[in-house]
Amino acid sequence: MWIFSPEMDNAIKYNYSFEILEGYTFERKITFKSYIGFLFSLRLKYPRSHPLNLIAKILLNSLYGRFGMNEISIRYEILSKEEFKETSENLILDFIEFEDHVLVGLKFEENEDSSNISIGIAAAITAYSRIFMSKFKNNPNINLYYTDTDSIYTDLKLDESFIDQKLLGKLKLEYFCEEAVFLAPKIYCLKTEKGLIKKVKGLKDTSSLTLNSFYWTDVKWSEIK
């Protein structure tokens, strides 16, 4: 198992132990401060319903993932039918046949000089997020009903030092719930003073669902698409 060293140090606080066999060292720098700051300011400036808020959210959330992807690039070539037959199937990602030629998408791996992948960046971002969330997930004084990558649902009033509606890196108070049902990751329903908030991963239209639907009383989930 590979682990980011600050996350290992944090886990040791909770009585985990490790045997280090090998590792890699990465140079530490503040790389995306202005980029992240600009996008976060857009999210504060525009309401959630505004397209710029959504665009900024997607760019923020997808940044770390781009650095952790397996970098397989594609190049397109026009080949004769004979050349196409001689091309290894393992290299062909896509193709379109014409009369005498074939437009082929071929897989190739870029060299290190042109690579935009950095496992160190991806690992650090996700690890620091888990380190922050561990303050709540490993706290015996907090009743934790549901948690996601960057959110918690609890009946305990948190210390004000953890909360700031406009400060990047702090928790934001989103809802007060009168009732809530959590079934699985990204499948839940919240009854708030503003109405129901329904989330079902993979289901775009939740308009037919009620709070009782999440108690498995008036819906056949196998029939929902």
UniProtKB/TrEMBL annotation:
Residues 1-140 form the DNA-directed DNA polymerase family B mitochondria/virus domain. This is DNA-directed DNA polymerase. Keywords: DNA replication, DNA-binding, DNA-directed DNA polymerase, Mitochondrion, Nucleotidyltransferase, Transferase. PROSITE patterns: DNA_POLYMERASE_B. Belongs to the DNA polymerase type-B family. One of its GO terms (molecular function) is nucleotide binding. GO terms for biological process: DNA replication. Gene3D superfamilies: Helix hairpin bin (1.10.287.690), Palm domain of DNA polymerase (3.90.1600.10). InterPro entries: DNA-dir_DNA_pol_B_CS, DNA-dir_DNA_pol_B_mt/vir, DNA/RNA_pol_sf, DNA_pol_palm_dom_sf. It is an enzyme of class 2 (transferase). Its EC number is 2.7.7.7. It catalyses: DNA(n) + a 2'-deoxyribonucleoside 5'-triphosphate = DNA(n+1) + diphosphate.
